Recover the amino acids of this structure.
């Protein structure tokens, strides 16, 4: 299956892209997607404990299942306002 | 994933090219006002929550929370967040805001709903600007209308505290000598401790 990954702010800078496509075998979770990203972009790992994640623009947990066509977002600590 | 209402005017803004944002922002013409060209003006009513690259319009927001309830609200409290020229000892040149726009809109809607549950008479609106902001420009505006001032102040304060906790927006500070992404809270809307903290600050 194929999912779209969205990265924001410093995560985007570290990976050098704000949007990536990943091909994964099923079943997969957000954690699976994250591990495949960190394998390609090791500096992302520093955010493992502080980031939030979203699936299809809804907040989710690392153990949430992902399915074909999903959009998975990894969000560093926020600084709006 | 934008706010959708039938029969709306659509106003498109040009996003910063490197920001992957959805560039649609819908504005509903006020029934008593003649529609004029242009986007974000006091002549039109506006959505209660919005993420936009356009300059923010507090008067429009106040009009929106006041609309349809003449005399019902005894108070309107507002908050405007501005770009400051100094931060942590650095001389700031400008800020660059980025959002995960569909989730940011949902998070703002969630905050408005939380405030409405907490202060049932309150009517709230909040707009956040993204893109490049110069010193002194407004990054966020909030308006809270309520029958009484205590609730208006509290709902307004609660909203800005919650925005800083759970809305997926980030600012990059460009300062003399460099740039840095600012990072605050790990966003978790289900974290009740964070919500209680915002409530305590709001009612202090």
């Amino acid at each position: 299956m194929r999912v779209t990954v969205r990265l924001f702010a410093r995560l985007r800078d570290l990976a050098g892209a704000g949007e990536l496509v990943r091909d994964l075998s099923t079943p997969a979770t957000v954690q699976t997607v994250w591990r495949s990203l960190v394998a390609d972009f090791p500096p992302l790992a520093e955010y493992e404990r502080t980031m939030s994640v979203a699936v299809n623009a809804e907040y989710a947990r690392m153990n949430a299942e992902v399915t074909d066509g999903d959009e998975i977002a990894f969000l560093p600590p926020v600084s709006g306002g | 994933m934008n706010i959708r209402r039938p029969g709306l005017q659509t106003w498109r803004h040009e996003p910063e090219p490197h920001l992957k944002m959805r560039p649609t922002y819908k504005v509903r013409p006020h029934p008593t006002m003649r529609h004029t060209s242009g986007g974000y003006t006091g002549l039109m009513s506006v959505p209660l929550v919005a993420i936009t690259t356009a300059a923010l319009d507090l008067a429009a927001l106040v009009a929106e929370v006041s609309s349809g309830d003449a005399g019902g609200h005894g108070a309107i409290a507002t908050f405007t967040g501005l770009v400051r020229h100094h931060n942590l000892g650095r001389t700031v040149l400008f800020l660059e805001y980025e959002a995960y726009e569909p989730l940011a809109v949902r998070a703002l809607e969630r905050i408005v709903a939380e405030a409405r549950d907490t202060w049932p008479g309150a009517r709230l609106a909040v707009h956040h600007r993204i893109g490049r902001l110069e010193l002194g420009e407004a990054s966020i505006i909030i308006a809270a209308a309520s029958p009484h001032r205590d609730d208006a102040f509290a709902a307004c304060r609660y909203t800005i505290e919650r925005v800083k906790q759970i809305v997926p927006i980030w600012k990059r500070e460009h300062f003399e000598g460099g740039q840095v992404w600012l990072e605050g809270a790990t966003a978790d809307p289900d974290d009740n401790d964070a919500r209680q903290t915002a409530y305590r600050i709001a009612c202090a």
The first strand of chain A starts at residue 2 and ends at 7. Strands of chain A lie at 2-7, 19-23, 28-29, 52-55, 58-60, 65-66, 71-75. The interface with chain B takes residues 6, 8-10, 13, 18-19, 50-52, 54, 57-59, 73, 75-81 of chain A (CB under 8 Å).
